[in-house]
Amino acid sequence: MFDVLDLSIRVLVLLGVAGLGVALLRGRSASLRAAIWTAALAAALLLPVVSAAVPSWRLPIWASSPVAPLEPAGSEPGAGIADASATTRSVVDVAAVPVAQSVNRSFDISGGTALPGLKPEEVIPVVMAFVTFVLVARIVRSHRQLNRIAANASPAGPEWSRLVDDTRVDLGIDRGVPVRATGATSVPAIAGLVRPILLLPIDTADWPTDVRRLVVVHELAHVARRDGLSQLLGQLACAVYWFVPLTWYGAWRASTLRERASDDVVLRTGVRPSAYAGSLVTLSQSTAGVLQSAAALEMARPSRIYERVTAILNPSARRDRLTWQSASAVIGMMFIATGVVGAVEFVERESPTVAAVAPAVVSQATAGAVAAVRETPATRAVTPSKAAAAAPVEDATTAVESAQAASDRLCAGRGLDRSSSSIHEDDNKRSWTVKLSGEGCSVDLRAEGRFEFNADFTDITRIPAGGFFRVDVTDRGVRRQLEIEAGPRDGNLVRTWRVDGRERPYDADARAWFAAFLIELDRRTGIGVDVRLPMLIRQGGIDAVLKETALMSSDYVRHQYYTKAAKATKVTPAEAARILRQASTMNSSDYYSAELVAAYAPAGLQDATVRAALIALVEGIKSDYYQSTSISAILGPGAPGATELEVLLRLVPRMTSDHYKGEVLMKVLRADLNATQRATIAKATASINSDYNAAEVLGALARGGVSEEAVRRAFLEATATIESDHYHSEVLAALLRSRGLAERDLLDVIASSKSIGSDHYQAQVLQSIARHSAATDRVRAAVLEASASLSKTYADQVRRAAGK
After folding, report:
1. Do residues 182 and 199 lie in contact, with contact meaning Cβ atoms separated by under 8 Å?
2. Is 439 left (phi over 0), alpha (psi -120 to 50) or beta?
3. DSSP secondary structure, 362-393, as one string
4. Is 206 exposed, middle or buried (0-12, 13-18, 19+ CB in 10 A)?
5. What's the whole-number mean pLDDT along residues 235-249?
6. Radius of gyration of the chain measured on its C-alpha atoms
7. SS3 sequence of 771-786
8. d(Cα 738, Cα 699) in Å, to the nearest integer?
9. What pLDDT, in 10s, does the model give residues 28-80?
10. Dihedral angle at the C-alpha atoms of 548, 551, 556, 561, nearest 10 degrees?
């Protein structure tokens, strides 16, 4: 039987394969991706059974047993071969054996029993079984509670039953689905696994017919797809593997994708996405009586609405159903993955031993060389005296290495991919810690006080009393330590320099190494920007600054150099463009990119090269928020000029967030704009996909006046992109309330109203036109002509408004 750690790893691997498959298929339909997660959760439940049924696949791995010490041929075990070989044996005894013992101690739970009458190794299974029992009991209770609610619910009206029967046939459901109303929920839900029941809120009498049809299609899609069983499988997997976080994530994603798959069924019936999204949002806004039951399949649970609405309104999303071929492939792949994961059994591989060496062959020098080869930095720290005896030429070698390291970049220029740093300020006292580590390299720096550097940033010249600077660097197998602190009396700096644990004189090699280290430290922390930046500008101007920032991996440090360069010297437009271009090609943080735009846009926007570099920098920003703040910084606080409008038309349509598009345009509309500027705003509004955001901008634009020909044409073209009848009519109503409308404007509004599909909303617009002060006989005749396509009730309302 698997232990907890082994079982957790196997489940993680199995669900990780499913997660990877879903990620690779993110462009496919929600039904397929939901099936992958559901199959993986079911496979996890079958994992112990499958692993017991299939043959084991023994996979050897390297064991952690210590390497056997050197022994002379023919000698008794434990006998030394020579005095020189004692160093080798001491390295093995100290480095290998205690490590193995410490690992065993870390897993020792023999100090006492957690529960009376149980052995320590029995405690964990008991705790796991208890938690699983509680979670399973919770699932059973939720199903029983839901069954009681369904049993006590009253039958819904006959119109619901007819609608369910018609939809059931269309979806291929061969069993009846009762419809009942209850006060226990305010949103539709499916209850029951074997005999599903559609539960409705009590107050559904005033729901429009199209909303009722959407509800029925969505909920019966769950029944047709057997989503109740899929949900139960996910809940059981979470109960059994509650200690594996990926199980909970997989169950949550499967549930969300099932809702999206049912949404796709609704959309495949021809429903307009914007209308369905609006109905879904409206249903989700009533949450007081939502079941929130683990056993129910609720249509409009608020926590999932945002993702679902986004998917519904995505025009490129695939919405095809799950075919039996795809389902078979998913099930087959999961069985294969379960078999492989359950069959693998890791076993230890025997460690290689060192061949015995005859005493006559082993000389004093050979034994020293063997000891030097087997010695590691860790063992030198444990037994420094013997390690030093085994390497008599260490001083000369270390000196050469120190000189070479001083001329090379820290860690050979490789990235230190794990880093952390902290700086604390308190009563004018600074304390900071920097930790960096990477392949074969580590840096540990601790410092206190406000210390000063020399003019060329190669050394520290002053540390206040009580302060210190300590650095510990391991680079390519060599450990260097330097401690600098102020002297107790005269304040002169006292330096302690060590190489591989041995104290050395602070000579020219040490100074050269420290100078190179300070440069690398500044490239990662920016500690020396106030000293190095003026020095670089004196040596080579902005060229030198850009050459140096190209070597930096930290967004923060590059940002410090970029922004402070504009204050340290007069930056020409050509130099500003080069700084911005380098920032855009170095994958800078969105925050720092937005800060650079704000710093360089006011003074350099009128220059074509700077403007192009600003646009490229903004286009590289991924965050919608920082894109909007950057565009706002480029446009400035007042009315935008021709150059700013060019930037607006280029950048706003490329933004992905409709909210922030609208926010940018609304800010611009607060200024006093001319006709050309307002027409540009209308053209940019046409790129907004959200009907709500587009209507908000166009409404604000209409309040400012659209009587000019160019503005009105752009306004109506943007209005034509709005799919929602409600928001379309709102925009036209705002246009009718604007100043200076003439006969030709009202005729254009009539033409735009003809694309409104709802008789109710179209009739509202036509009545407003007929009553408008600028309406002429020609306009009223056009209104009556447009009303001919309306139902009799709404057509009569329009005729009365037109005086007929």
Report:
1. yes
2. beta
3. --HHHHHHHHHHH--HHHHHHSHHHHHHH-TT
4. exposed
5. 90
6. 37
7. HCCCCCHHHHHHHHHH
8. 10
9. 888 888 889 898 898 888 888 877 676 666 555 444 333 333 333 333 334 33
10. 10
Task: Name the DSSP letter for residue 653.
Answer: G
Query: Percentage of the chain with pLDDT > 70?
Result: 77
SS3 state at 766 = helix
Length of the chain (residues): 804
Cα–Cα distance measured from residue 533 to residue 23, given in angstroms and rounded to the nearest whole number: 45
Which residue do the tokens 């999932």 mark?
304
CB count within 10 Å of CB 767 equals 19
Q: Nearest Cα to 189, choosing from 271, 119, 283, 253?
A: 283
- Taking alpha carbons only, the member of 481, 379, 512 closest to residue 88 is 379
DSSP tag of 345: E
Hey, what are 15's tokens?
Answer: 């669900």
- Do the beta carbons of residue 342 and residue 47 sit within 8 Å? yes
Q: Of 362, 297, 294, which Cα lies nearest the Cα of 140?
A: 294
CA distance 546 to 575: 10
* Residues 206-231: tens digit of each pLDDT: 788 888 888 888 888 888 888 888 88
Q: Could you tell me if 323 and 31 are in contact, meaning their C-beta atoms sit under 8 angstroms apart?
A: no
Backbone angles phi, psi at 31, to 5 degrees: -65, -40
- Whole-angstrom Cα distance, residue 356 to residue 777? 115
Kindly report, residue by residue over 380-403, the tens digit of the pLDDT: 333 333 333 333 333 333 333 333
* Residues 189, 219 contacting (CB under 8 angstroms): yes
Cα–Cα distance for residue pair 471/616, rounded to 1 Å = 40
Place of tokens 């106030």: 530
Q: Which of 233, 217, 235 shows the shortest CA–CA distance to 134? A: 235
Q: At 460, is the secondary structure helix, strand, or coil? A: strand
CA atoms of 141 and 131, how far apart (whole Å): 15
The whole-angstrom distance between residue 92's C-alpha and the CA centroid of its chain comes to 47
Q: Which tokens in the block code for residue 43?
A: 């496979």
| Helix locations, 529-606, DSSP H | 529-549, 555-568, 573-585, 590-604
Helix (H) or strand (E) holding 191: strand 189-191
Integer Cα distance of 413 and 421 in angstroms:
20
Of residues 475, 242, 465, 501, the one with CA closest to residue 385? 501
Rounded Cα gap, residues 451 and 460, in angstroms: 7
Residue 792 in tokens? 């009799």
- Give dist(CA 19, CA 270) in Å, integer: 32
Q: Which residues contact 393 (CB under 8 A, 6 or more apart)?
A: none
H/E element holding 578?
A: helix 573-585
Residue type present at position 157: G
Instruction: Supply 105's token pair.
Output: 């101690």
> Distance between CA atoms of 60 and 83, rounded to whole angstroms?
38
Q: In Å, how far are 141, 536, 546, 572, 698 from 543, measured between CA atoms?
A: 71, 9, 5, 12, 47
DSSP for residue 327: H
Q: Is 210 within 8 Å of 14 (Cβ atoms)?
A: no
C-alpha 733/C-alpha 688 separation (Å) is 20
Distance of CA 523 to the CA centre of its chain: 27
Question: From CA 614, how far away is CA 656, in angstroms rounded?
Answer: 19
* Integer Cα distance of 668 and 30 in angstroms: 39
> Which strands, in side-by-side order, build the sheet including 197-200?
154-155, 179-181, 197-200, 189-191, 297-298
